[in-house]
Write a structure and sequence with these properties.
Belongs to the cycloisomerase 2 family. Helices cover 5% and strands 54% of the residues. The protein contains one helix and 28 strands. The longest helix has 19 residues. It starts with a helix and ends with a strand.
Length: 353
Amino acid sequence: MKLKSLLFCFAFTLLNIQAQNIPLYVGTYTNGESEGIYQFEFNTETGSLNNKQLAINIDNPSFLAYSPDKKHLYSVNQSEDGYVSSYKINNDGTLLLLTRVSSNGEGPCHISINENGDKIVVSNYNAGTVSIYPINKDGSLKEASQIFNHNSANEKSHAHSAKFSKDDLFVSDLGRNAIYHYKITDDSYKLESPSIVKMEGNPGPRHFSLDKKSKFLYVINEYGCSIASIKKTKKGFKQIDFDSTLDENYEGKNKCADIHLSKDGRFLYGSNRGENSIAVFKRNTKNGTLDKIQNMSVHGDWPRNFSLDPTGKFLLAANKKSNNISVFKIDNESGKLTFLHATDLPAPVCLLF
């Protein structure tokens, strides 16, 4: 009986440990030591990163996205002749390349997928174009069904990110300092507004995050080192708040990068490249305004991208120039970060749970 009890306890413990481990895929730049997309096992109880493997050897997979069922993965391949790739996720976590199509513009830098999992949108930074691709049932990609060119005779576009939100599509254009708004009509997207709010100066809107109801939109500005808080109203959109991402005593150069809301919407996080920190904001869930409460060092250099794990207990930062991924514990009550450890990896630039 004792032996049976011990075996049962061992089996239960083993299953519990396995349940705590979830895959983390990492996109990288491959002009150095990196070879493509990597995969780790992330422990959602301890925050440890283990069992690193090369999931696929491929060029400059600088941004990644999952299908809703997590059976397929998509990446941009950032190069002069830009590409978009789709992959099947094998049982062992490695990736099988399914399709590789043109991104329809130089320098693809961002990719995201809609809720139904039947369309992806790609932002081409150098070209200033945005491309929409239908997804086949087997996870492979069709050629682009729509391509938007935001360049004008007087202004150069730098499309930096785009996201679907039900029937809406929002595009952040760093070059033209605008957030474009498209709406779907008869399975195609039509431009609703070339700029949902007026942005003063040259802030350089880069990435943005939407709350669950898509009532509030938070834009991180690369050049302005700031976050613009925008509210959706019956008449359109209006800016309701504006906050610096930098510590009040920091005087060096800086470029902002990524932004994410916590799972419960109570906190907002943004990354600073230069100050090399994560700015932490407490969010008023009723009126949408922000109050900065922390600037935490990323224990690395150039946090181009970061991610919150699915449990909401950890934040991971991809530090491109220092070749490491830093892991932080999130305090459930305050939202503040505590550094745990860092794991080496060449040129990490995108983290995907």
